[in-house]
Specification:
four-stranded antiparallel sheet, single chain, 4 helices, alpha+beta
Length: 185
């Protein structure tokens, strides 16, 4: 069927519908268009809100399993705080997680500087790990992110990045991590 014949057929059918029938057809098309734009968008937003609600419920459930801080005295609060830090003999485990993260990113840790830092009266000691790293910027950032996520008692103290030329892909970085450990487990 040609375009001219199709156009004539459409004009004939619209003439048969009349003014009210044509208005009804237009309203039907607008309703369908409205459903696809407004209702579908609302359904997507609702699905996103349901996901957020479930995440918040999980957070509330995990927080409700913790003891209320107002119900604990100061000494009990400190005990709960110190429980989050590993004992001094667990430092090799933290170092293993660092080395695994470097292997996962394809980085080589050739040499490093390690220092145990403890003040006389402080219960928390620090184990400082200074690592020279060479790789792409993305590799180094992913390495840092993985190390920090895998070690709750570890902090990034310092990060220095150096590149010889602007267009070099390789970046040299010196990363200083600190592992906090409980000296009185």
């Amino acid at each position: 069927m040609s375009a001219v014949a199709l156009q004539r057929q459409l004009q004939y059918r619209l003439a048969q519908l009349g003014g009210i029938g044509s208005l009804g057809l237009v309203m039907l098309l607008l309703a369908a268009l409205g459903w696809f734009t407004l209702i579908r968008a609302g359904e997507k937003e609702l699905a996103g809100s349901v996901g957020k609600l479930q995440a918040l419920k999980q957070q509330v459930e995990s927080k409700s399993s913790l003891p209320l801080s107002s119900a604990l005295n100061r000494e009990e609060q400190l005990q709960v705080f110190y429980k989050n830090f590993p004992a001094g003999n667990k430092v090799p485990d933290a170092l293993q997680r660092i080395y695994r993260a470097s292997d996962a990113q394809g980085l080589t840790l050739d040499t490093g500087e390690y220092a145990w830092i403890q003040s006389g009266s402080e219960r928390l000691a620090r184990y400082r790990v200074s690592l020279p790293v060479k790789g792409t910027f993305t590799q180094i950032l992913n390495f840092m992110d993985t190390v920090l996520q895998d070690n709750a008692a570890l902090a990034l103290e310092n990060a220095v990045f150096k590149r010889d030329k602007v267009d070099d892909a390789a970046v040299e970085a010196k990363l200083v991590f600190v592992v906090y450990v409980d000296t009185q487990p």
